[in-house]
Specification:
Elements (H helix, E strand, L loop, with lengths): L1 H64 L1 H14 L11 H60 L23 H107 L11 H63 L5 H4 L4
Organism: Balearica regulorum gibbericeps (East African grey crowned-crane)
Family: Belongs to the tektin family.
Subcellular location: Cytoplasm, Cytoskeleton, Cilium axoneme
Length: about 375
């Protein structure tokens, strides 16, 4: 009976050990599964964080690139303040430049906010990756412990009694809570990874849109400048053509005045002759002081010459006033032409030349 009991106890102990070893084997499979899942999640998060970091760099480059068009637009506005009246007006070019400045400011604010968002998401990715790494580290340690436990046998020399270990720890997890812990970690990691992927797509869209908006606004400003310069050239050409006509009229009027002065001068000698004759004849004695035909003719001649001279002098005054008016017109035209020349120089030589430094779309999109 004692022998039978001993054999039964030995068989029961062997079966119990086999069951425990099998349970440890199953447990190793479970631990390995979650360890592999966590490793995959860690690698995915690490790769995703790297991709997000690249997008964050693009945002930074795009933000830096906006400084050039902003400087160009503000410089254009400042340069155009040096235009002279009547060209110092709020025209289409100024309105488009102000729109460009406002657009760039809004874009810079958007890029700064997105940079902060990307930085926050990268931190969340790293935090969740660290959680998964700690979980995996615990799984690796547990796996190694259970591997060693599975190798123990009755022939092992490194086994001994540990009566205090035959109990459940109060803080021990259940299989359900144990699996849920890793499942939740992976779920949160997947959630952050998805948020990171969506943010990268958003950054792509933002950079595409802002670079396109800047390109289109730059084109609108350039078009307004080209149109304004064309208007200035056309107006300047018309003013110069008008000035040519005025200069010809000035020349003609100066010649006319010279002719009138000469005509007045030419009347002096005949008038002197007529008046001298009349003066001398006024000394005729007594009855000889006769109103004869010669006297009538001399008086008529003197009056005609005087009247003609008065008429010529009046015409001379009118011509001189006309010349002064023409000179005033000439001066005004020359001032207007100078104003237009200055405006053309500012818009074409200063502003449009400066705008050739506007960054290309690839740079504005953060690729360069």
């Amino acid at each position: 009976e004692g022998k039978e009991l001993a054999e039964h106890a030995a068989a029961a102990a062997q079966r119990a050990q086999q069951d425990s070893t099998a349970a440890l084997g199953q447990r190793l499979q479970d631990v390995h599964f979650w360890k592999a899942e966590l490793q995959k999640e860690i690698e995915d998060l690490d790769a995703e964080t790297g991709l997000l970091a690249a997008q964050k760099q693009r945002l930074g480059r795009a933000l830096d690139a906006t400084e050039v068009p902003y400087a160009i637009a503000t410089d254009n506005l400042q340069c155009r303040e040096r235009r002279q009246p009547p060209d110092l007006v709020s025209d289409e070019v100024e309105r488009e430049l102000l729109k460009e400045v406002e657009l760039i400011r809004n874009i810079q604010e958007l890029l700064k906010r997105t940079l902060i968002q990307a930085g926050n998401q990268m931190r969340l990715n790293c935090d969740q990756k660290e959680v998964c790494e700690m979980d995996r580290s615990d799984k690796v340690e547990t796996y190694n412990i259970d591997v060693n436990c599975g190798r123990y046998s009755n022939q092992s020399t490194n086994v001994q009694f540990h009566p205090g270990s035959v109990k459940f720890e109060e803080s021990a997890s259940t299989p359900e809570t144990w699996a849920k812990f890793s499942h939740d970690n992976i779920y949160r990691a997947e959630r952050e990874k998805l948020a990171s992927i969506n943010l990268r797509a958003l950054i792509d869209n933002i950079l595409h849109d802002v670079s396109e908006d800047l390109r289109m606004q730059c084109a609108a400003v350039n078009k307004a400048f080209a149109k304004r310069c064309e208007e200035l050239y056309d107006t300047k050409h018309k003013l110069e053509h008008h000035l040519e006509k005025i200069l010809k009229e000035v020349g003609d009027q100066e010649a006319n005045i010279a002719a009138l002065k000469q005509a007045i001068k030419d009347k002096e000698a005949p008038l002197k002759v007529a008046q001298t004759r009349l003066y001398d004849r006024s000394f005729r004695p007594n009855v000889e002081l006769c109103r004869d035909e010669a006297q009538f003719r001399l008086i008529s001649e003197a009056e005609e010459l005087t009247e003609s001279t008065v008429s010529l002098k009046k015409k001379l005054l009118e011509s001189e006033q006309c010349l002064r008016n023409l000179e005033d017109t000439r001066m005004n035209l020359e001032k207007e032409i100078a104003v237009k020349t200055n405006s053309i120089f500012i818009d074409r030589q200063k502003c449009m030349a400066h705008r050739t430094r506007h960054p290309v779309v690839l740079k504005l999109a953060g690729y360069q």
